[in-house]
Amino acid sequence: MNAAPADQIRLLDVQALDVRLQQLAHKRKALPEHAEIESLTKDLTQLKDLLVAAQTEESDCAREQTKAEQDVDQVRQRAVRDQQRLDSGAVTSPKDLENLQREIASLAKRQGDLEDVVLEVMERRESAQERVGELTERVESVQAKIDDATARRDAAFEEIDGEATTVTKEREVVSGSVPADLLKLYDKLREKEGGVGAARLYQRRCEGCRLELNITELNEVRAAAPDAVVRCENCRRILVRTSESGL
User: In this structure, which CATH number among 1.10.540.10, 1.10.287.1700, 3.40.50.720, 2.30.30.40 belongs to the domain 31-175?
Assistant: First the structure.
């Protein structure tokens, strides 16, 4: 393949722009906010799971408290009715009076036991409510950190993407002045060789593979016509000659 020396040198400009685009893509992918958001999101997921568990416990305690209070109320109402019967004088049989008094005493003990249950459930519910409040604050705090990190990441995205757009447009202009067949070869090599398709020959060294050309290779390059598209024998990239090639 042949191409004017000026076109080959412009290929180095295209390569420089492609390298910059690679750097921007890497920078976008390697932003520290990515790891920060990932770590915080894991923490948030765990906290939300704990919060759901605490809310479930509080809800269970609320139902248990309601049931226990209803049991207390039922026993209290029955005790009131028995006491009213006793006070009314309607029960005259000594045996019935004894049974009624015994039942009233039993109901009083039962009520006391149930009220103890209510207090125990209320204490557990209060503890669960405190846990819910604590976890809610922690969830809100972590979410705020995620929102902050996300805003910083998006701002960085905007800056990087803006520069990438500018560089892409510049590449379109520069590559448009490079012969199509030369650009096609360059793009093919760039994809194959880790993003570098053309390299400068500087002081007898290929800047693509960083290897110095041996005497035979140098002689071949020296003998090549100025418009010949030379390839590095080591990495097979397009080797662009300049006044600093040391030939």
Answer: 1.10.287.1700
